Every structure is written in structure tokens, then in C-alpha cells.
Amino acid sequence: QVQLVESGGGLVQAGGSLRLSCAASGRTVSSYTMGWFRQAPGKEREFVAVINWSGGWTYYADSVKGRFTISRDNAENAVYLQMNSLKPEDTAVYSCAVKLGGRIQATQIQAYNYWGQGTQVTVSS
After folding, report:
1. CA distance 68 to 32
2. Would you say 121 and 16 are in contact if contact means Cβ atoms under 8 Å apart?
3. What tens digit of pLDDT does each residue of 75-85 get?
4. Which of 22, 43, 53, 87 could make an S-S bridge to 96, C-beta 3.0–4.6 Å?
């Protein structure tokens, strides 16, 4: 079992920045791919960013590329999402997830085995 707890969300003005954290417990996640997803009101959950076990490979949704940066600290069993130049359309609940393995692409929700409860990010215009 893996427990994931997100933090760092809040209310920010457009153009501002936030740094989300995802702390894992119950099992080390240092060997696994980690992802961030978000769900806006009335919309389906969508992929935001992914990072492989070493941090050597990352991939982003087009909507956040160049503005968001995913990183991890395996010693801390944690993954982060630095969000800059925030826009009102970034408003959503952001959740982290861990992918233990399998062939499903890491941009797909179904690829992930454990999820956090999420943290709310609200960007005002």
C-alpha cells in the first residue's frame, strides 16, 4: 500500500506561482514513475505531467509545457510540481499518483495504481 498526500495548493492571481508537493508513505516510490493530474469542475480528470523513477525523463501536457516543472526527491519519497505563469484555466484539484508498472502509457489515468486525495488550486483573473 502507498499513501499519497498532496499539499501546497491555494488561491493565487493569474501570473503567479505555486509549488505542489506530494509525500508518499507506506512504501518507497523511488523506483516508480510518478504523475500529476488535475480535475476542473465539471470536467474529466486530465494528465498534467509525469516523471520517471530517476527524474531523467519528464513529459508534460501541451497546456502546461514551459510553465510547469515536475521533479522528485527520492530520498524524501516525494514528487513536486512547480507551477509558474498560472492562468485561470489551471484552476482544478491537482492529484499525484504512482505507477507501479505495466504497459499502459504514463499519460493515461488507468496506468496508475495509487492516488492522493488532491489539493485545490484556484487562479483568479
Report:
1. 21
2. no
3. 999 999 999 99
4. 22
How does residue 87 score in pLDDT terms, banded at 50, 70 and 90? very high
Query: Looking at residues 25-42, what average pLDDT do you find?
Result: 95
- The Cα 110–Cα 115 span in angstroms is 11
CB contact at 8 A, 50 and 112: no
**Contact by Cβ (8 Å): 45, 96:** no
d(CA 40, CA 89): 8
